[in-house]
Amino acid sequence: MTIEPRFRGLLVLGVVVLLLPFALPNSFYYDVAIRIAINATIAIGMNLLIGYTGQISLGHAGFLGLGAYGSGILTARFGWPSMLALPVTAIGTGLLAYLVARPILRLKRHYLAIATLGFGIIINIVIGNEAAYTGGPDGMAVASLSLFGVEVTGERVWYGLAAGVLVFVAWMMVNLVNAPMGRALQAIHGSEIAARVAGIDVAGLKVRVVVFSAVLASVMGGLGAHYSGFISPASSDFMHSIELVTMVVVGGMASVYGSIVGAAILTVLPQVLGRFEGWETMVFGLILTLSLMFMPRGIVPTLRLRLVRSEA
Predict the structure, then answer these.
(1) Given CB 3.0 to 4.6 Å as the disulfide criterion, which of 37, 127, 141, 151 pairs with 166?
(2) Is residue 285 predicted with pLDDT exceeding 90?
(3) Sequence-distant (≥ 6) Cβ neighbours of residue 278 within 8 angstroms
(4) What's the mean pLDDT in 210-222?
(5) What is the Cα–Cα distance from 196 to 274, expressed in whole angstroms?
(6) How far apart are the C-alpha atoms of 257 and 226, rounded to whole Å?
């Protein structure tokens, strides 16, 4: 039985996810793996928006912050069960994304980038100022995650949950980008005018992608908050949005697996560069600059292109 090329990456991802726990020696490495899975899932949703549809978002951490604080506030302040708080928060975030996307997506290029940046800053300011609910700049503690009355504890259980969500979202995205909707999104990226002439509902599809990526960021933000047990306004600030965009760009735009590779690199690098004592930011920037200079399409698309050329 031959495996379709688009599913070979999923097979590799599944094997890595299953075998990785055998190579993780302690809780620290499990923590890094869990954070990679959370960031990679968010990056996949962002790649659908930025890489496949061609819409820039510099405020995506705002949706993540809404998910984290929404679920955290409902569970900690109002006593909601986390199984209810997570989907309710995601629905609320999706509705807000829908209302915001309609006017913002009429803008183009840098105007769109500035508008999304402003949206993210507004969310971050609100989170920082509403101290009665959010704890203000000091952040707030978040209740542990409970599924069907069972508390989710232990790094192995959290790894299984985060990795399972990642594999499911990757599978869903691989199918979506190869479906008619995915081809329509890529047509919008190529030329919105040509897409309209072809009968594609450009405005409607762009709004759907924004809502989907926002809901995904909200859910993973909520899971991340319950996992760490604490959240602060830094989860929704501008720099976090830039980190998420960088994951997409470095790993490879319009590449599901590029999102995962980019998230892994951007999550692990700060841990590795911590030994440089004050120089880590400069080294981090140098690595990113060199990778974009020599692999402008991103790591995964560049390596795939070189592999195809070597086989030809």
Answers:
(1) 37
(2) no
(3) none
(4) 96
(5) 49
(6) 26
**Rounded Cα distance, 286 and 187, in Å:** 34
Q: How many CB atoms lie within 10 A of CB 163?
A: 24
User: DSSP secondary-structure letter at 258?
Assistant: H
Q: Tokens 């996307």 map to which residue? A: 101
Task: Give the position of tokens 């995904």.
Answer: 216
Query: Which one, of 125, 248, 255, lies nearest residue 178 by Cα?
Result: 255
List the one residue out of 280, 239, 34, 310 whose CA is nearest residue 155: 34
Q: Where are the beta strands (DSSP E) in the chain?
A: 140-141, 146-147, 150-151, 230-231
- Look-up: residue for tokens 């952040």? 139
Tens of pLDDT along 78-120?
999 999 999 999 999 999 999 998 888 887 767 788 888 899 9
Q: How confident is the model at residue 5 (pLDDT cuts 50, 70, 90)?
A: low
| Radius of gyration over every alpha carbon of the chain, rounded to an integer in angstroms | 19
Q: Does residue 48 carry a pLDDT above 80?
A: yes
SS3 at position 290 = helix
Angle between helices 82-104 and 109-129 (to 10 degrees): 140
User: Hey, what amino acid is at 67?
Assistant: G
In this structure, are residues 83 and 147 in contact, taking their beta carbons and an 8 Å threshold? yes
Amino acid letter for position 207: V
Instruction: Pinpoint the alpha helices (H) of 48-81.
Output: 61-76
Place of tokens 């698309």: 301
User: Taking the CB of residue 243, how many other CB atoms lie within 10 A of it?
Assistant: 17
Which of these, 251, 259, 189, lies nearest to 217 by C-alpha position? 259
User: Which pLDDT belongs to residue 145?
Assistant: 93
For the chain, give every domain's residue range: 5-237
Q: How far apart are the first and last CA of the chain?
A: 25
